[in-house]
Design goal:
0% strand; transmembrane helix; 94% helix; Gas vesicle protein; membrane; mainly alpha; transmembrane; YtxH; 2 domains; 115 residues
Length: 115
Amino acid sequence: MDDRNNNAVVGALMLVAGGIIGAGAALLFAPQSGKRTRRDIVRYAKKAKHKAEGVVDDFSAQVSDMVETVGDKAEEILDKGSDMAYEAKKDLLKAIEKGQDRLEKQRSRLAKLIG
C-alpha cells in the first residue's frame, strides 16, 4: 500500500513540475510582449463578456415569450372551461326540467289510480 501512495505522490509532483516547466517555456518562447498579451487577454475577456450578455438577453427574451404564450394558453383554456361549464349547467337544468315533467306525469297517473 505504501508503494501505491508513493506512486501517487510522485505522479502528482511530476504533473506539477511539468506544468511549471511548460509555463516557463511558454514565457520564454512567447511571440509577443507581456503588455501586448495582457491587452489581448483584456480584449478577449470583453468580447466574451459581450457574447455572454447577448446569450443572456436572448435567453431572457425566449423565456419571456414562453411565459407570455403559456399565460395566453392558460387564459384560453380557462375561457373554454367557463363556456363548457355554462353549457353543462344549461344541459343539467334541461335534464332536471324533463325529469320534473316526467315525475309530474307519473304523480298524476298514480293519483288517478289511487282515486
